[in-house]
Amino acid sequence: MRFLAMAFGAALLVSGCVSGPKDVGDGSKIDPVDPASLDRWVHKAGALLNGSLDAAALTSEWLPVGGYDGREPTVGVDSKGALYYAARDYSGGKTPPVSSTQTPIMKSVDGGKTWKDVSPRLPTGDREPPRSGDPMVVVDPWTDRIFQIELYDLVCNWVVFSDDAGASWKGNPKACSSLVVDHQTIGAGPPAAPVPKLVLYPNMVYVCVNQIADSHCSRSLDGGLTFESFHLVYPGARADKGGDVCGGIHGHVLVAPDGAVYLPREYCGDAFVAVSRDNGMTWELKDVDAGLGEYGNDPNMAFDAAGTVYYSFTSAKDQAIYLTWSKDAGRTWSKPVRASPPHFTFANHPSLTAGDEGRIGLVFLGTADELGEDRTRWTWHSYMTTSHDAKAEEPTFATLRVNAADDLVFRGDCRAIRCGYIREFLDASIAPDGSFWGAFIDACLAPDEAKYEPKTDCNKEAANYGQGNGHLAYVGRLDAHLFAGERKVSGGG
To answer: FRET label pair with 215: which of 232, 249, 321, 389, CA 20 to 30 Å apart?
Structure first.
């Protein structure tokens, strides 16, 4: 298999062309075909390059996760290549009581072909935690400790962790607050200097939550057994916006190799990042969208092996996904560049991962439909994008659709905070061999696929648009060669 870098400049000869290549304005050429008829594209600076990507140069897989139902998926990969997937399971019914939802932790050691449930269990044999809300699984890239965090009764977050690849788990309900908490996230990494007195675990662990209007973070100095009081990160109201209340929903927390902690979020219509360089005690807020604004509530971040930090968001200006980066711990940021293909009319729910310097992977949902008034006709697919020169002034990207063309993942309006029952975010992670993985949900099923019976197949009919007909957990795998050689520590998602 050829490396992706060799493929970026390769043209795919397309049968049926009746005229020569068209100049797209930067010296590149594109064959006169409808880009929406293809399943992969090479693009930069908002223009397609040579129409498509050689099919032999980059391959992907669309793999079911053991037939599980799910929403809001996350995926982690340890240093041995084992995959860990979590998503909220609603197989007990379409709108069950909270107590009937679950979050199985699924593990695969054969590249997503087969999966085993390694969920934490109480002494009774019941799942720990006993019920689920906003699930998340994260693998600390420095230690391979696996963290699972669950929202628990809107007051606490139930944190458990494993140091033996899911064979056993420790933890208790922790990271509690006197206020309502929601949309929690967990991350771990080295401390920043000066170092607090760490016990039992070499890294800091951070939990961040939405507390109705504000965003707050708490830290653990003992690997997640206990947490300190929450510190305010984002005030709910922005003074420079006339005191407008922006809410408290944020993206996933990220801890970089130098100990800097990042919490991205949409902040009254702008893409912001909060950065702490003193182990979560104080935070600096910075607008990173260069006037593009942000549409959506879950921007996402990652760092590469050189310590460069990347930030992805959906622009309010043109509904495309943009990428910006910082190499000075979030003090300054590059000019954002468009990372989704130019013919997409809307792209949303981006999630990032990164490998060697300048090599990034991005997953998202997108559509090339003309978005008219009839929302029942809007069709959405799952995409994976990669770049080997993400720090260039005009990076080159390759994008593949990973689900089948005739098997949608959603039909309806996937533009706002929530994409139906896919909900609010996707996830991405990187394996030791340099391939990268995306956590997805298929919310557009045929009647014989779903655990609870849909009445129609939303791949063919629009009767149940906006809800989806069941929800099955999937992972996408892309041979992106994000590590050129041996795996180095990287993070994201």
So the answer is: 321
